[in-house]
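Structure first, sequence second, as always.
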């Protein structure tokens, strides 16, 4: 399964690194191996400067990535990405064709701006809940949730909640045993419940 993680300048480091670690570790532990092909993608083929000056090279761009089984849109300082028409047009194009779509933290704003989660139950970082509701009043924004699943969309709260959500997605897309083995390998205390 192809797992594409969309990154952009000022993305939160663990918002993409956490899910990347989950899916790459799960792929290594899966039987047979390589259940997931996880990659980072960005608008341009240049280093992305995530928060704190963390430089990261995307594997693919909007123009050359493979089809995805799961798209993860990460959070961070999302304001420029939300205002970027190329980002919003790309998300609006690929999300309907992707069987599973998820967001970490303020990545929900990008999905909302692209019109992909209209009318759904969602969540985001606790600090941004009110802003998400005010900006997109058609959303049912839920507080105190690690992640929220509504149809093919799964949105999560901030940073570590994205790791919890990613482990949940491993359990859904493969099985619970692989998700548990992945959390153990990572020495991560997985909160299995969304609440």
């Amino acid at each position: 399964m192809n797992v594409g993680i969309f990154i952009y300048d000022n993305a939160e480091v663990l918002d993409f690194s956490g899910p990347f670690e989950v899916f790459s570790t799960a792929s290594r532990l899966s039987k047979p191996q390589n259940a997931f092909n996880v990659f980072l993608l960005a608008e341009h083929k240049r280093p992305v400067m995530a928060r704190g000056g963390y430089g990261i090279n995307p594997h693919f761009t909007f123009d050359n990535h493979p089809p995805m089984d799961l798209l993860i849109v990460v959070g961070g300082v999302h304001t420029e990405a939300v205002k970027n028409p190329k980002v919003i047009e790309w998300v609006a194009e690929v999300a309907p064709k992707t069987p599973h779509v998820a967001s970490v933290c303020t990545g929900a704003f990008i999905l909302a701006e692209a019109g992909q989660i209209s009318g759904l139950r969602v969540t985001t970082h606790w600090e941004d809940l009110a802003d998400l509701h005010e900006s997109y009043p058609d959303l049912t924004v839920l507080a105190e949730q690690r992640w929220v699943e509504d149809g093919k969309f799964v949105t999560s709260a901030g940073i570590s909640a994205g790791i919890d959500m990613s482990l949940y997605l491993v359990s859904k897309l493969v099985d619970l045993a692989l998700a548990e083995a992945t959390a153990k390998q990572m020495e991560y205390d997985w909160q299995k419940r969304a609440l």
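Margin note: The CA atoms of residues 57 and 180 lie 29 Å apart.
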